């Protein structure tokens, strides 16, 4: 409370004993509709002291009552005439500080943030900010400061104008465009906006709340534990999004492993037949191979051991094979995307466990792959013919988007089977001699 207020006003409406009454009166002004007046005010649930105060303010008899109706215009006129304050609202502000008109503040903020959106010239960024998630993201990273938000948008647009790039490093892009090699590091506001714009064009990820069936045919819900099974989260996911935009982040990490991929004859030295080969994200983006993959079957496995077994068995006669090495990272995703764009038909096999199914969902959704001996029939056959190869199946269930019966079968048998354990059957398909 303001101790510097007029002593007459202090005696009339001040003091801690009337703080709750003043708060209730202030709320009526705070919640007034746009363009509306606060008149009259009915106050209920009054204590004897509060009723006496309001009766004195209104010039009414001191009758005991739990409610009173205040003629605000009359009170305003009386306070102005006495010289204590210009109005009841003015009196409350002199005692306890400014009253914020909530509807007016909301309109003001809406106008300010609409101006931020209208100032965007990049269509992707403007489209993002028109969604509740997008404008909410901008407000969070700008700490609800519209001026800071406008500057973030301006800098993000400068970066977006350079994308897609062709193998530039993220630090070089940041230095060239923003004058700071670290301006696009993970967690920086501009980087967050740029990545959000690029993710708009990506296929939506699996819904973590999507139901899957249990062995009784009833639905169960996925939990956050399932999401945690995906290694490609956080910084890894950001690296993959940058890669889609042609920007390199830690471009030598987790290179893509493959065998006998079909390229033009001029690249035979780079991709030697019969020998496993690694390709970094840097090389795939800066000097993409000339793929000769139209109509070719390219098999995709989860585990490097299977690729090594295939190389030893068939050598140069092995069908084209790519290894994701678990959930594919940026280099593996880039390689699979290039092969799919070149017309290759991708076929995927992985471990018969829940992470394996999640990886399969990703490969088939993102790259248009088809299952390769990776259905319910194949799982049941493996369980029956080679029970010694199985081990207990743990974790939360994941629905196989390509074959719902596979999830049911795995829930029923409760065993997992590693991909390498099925090498004998998979090698039959890889004989390309």
UniProtKB/TrEMBL annotation:
- Give the InterPro entries listed for this entry: CHP02679 (IPR013495), CHP02679_N (IPR024466), DUF2399 (IPR024465)
- Could you tell me which residue ranges the DUF2399 domain spans? 280-430
Annotated Conserved hypothetical protein CHP02679 N terminus domain residues: 41-262
Q: Species name for this entry? A: Mesorhizobium calcicola
What name does the UniProt record give this protein? TIGR02679 family protein
